[in-house]
Design brief:
By secondary structure, this protein is α+β, with helices and mostly antiparallel strands. It contains 9 helices and 8 strands.
Length: 263
Amino acid sequence: MGTITKALEMLDFFSKSRSDIGLGEFVKLTGRDKATVHRHLVELLQNGWLEQDQTTRAYRLGPAILRLSAVRETTYPTRALIRPIVRHLSETLGELVHASLLQGDQLSPIYFADLGNYGVQVHFNLAELLPLHATSSGLAVLAFCDPALRDRILAGDLPAYTATTVTDPDTLLEMIETARQTGIAGAAKAFDAEVASQAIAIFGSDEKVVGALSVSVPSVRATAEKMSEIRGPLIDAARDITRSLGGSYPPDHPLYRSADGVK
């Protein structure tokens, strides 16, 4: 791992519940020595990626994040395009819906909606990166991504997030193949022991997978009938997002339609 990567990786430790992080906590989170961590923090601070509270000395995300986020959304308005589609799907199904984009070997959530119609709801952390092998979104991406990425994930570390996370590469490969044949990936109690989900990959203008759209349901409501009801609206919403992004499904995708490239 290069020096730049090590420094930028530290930004991923921030979340809604962990908005300020001190030097000592960074040392524990990274497992690196104090001098190295401090050097990386100084570099991030000097370049605006972080700012420091002068009283507590803790670090928080800096103005450079806001500037680049604004530039990205202005030039490539992904969140603005996805937001109404995600909200409509959540309103239709009454469940939590989230969209995420591929970021290296993980998925980065960019928007989610949950109307809170039920007493039992799925807890979703927008700042948490999603593993490809343990989520329906990840499996949907692995079904249509570059084979090199899929092979790297299956040959690498496959941590168990729950007692039922699938970590056997052969079993995962079977699940990926099923998703490739149907266009829909499913995962139950894999990343969260109380959640089942279904997802469909979304594509960019070059017919390459760029992320996924997923519906998450508390396990207590994840009946066969419920999960079946999700599929139609999920297919339509994923199609709409791919279209909104100027993308199209590859011809070998089961949801492809020759008339316009997207079913």
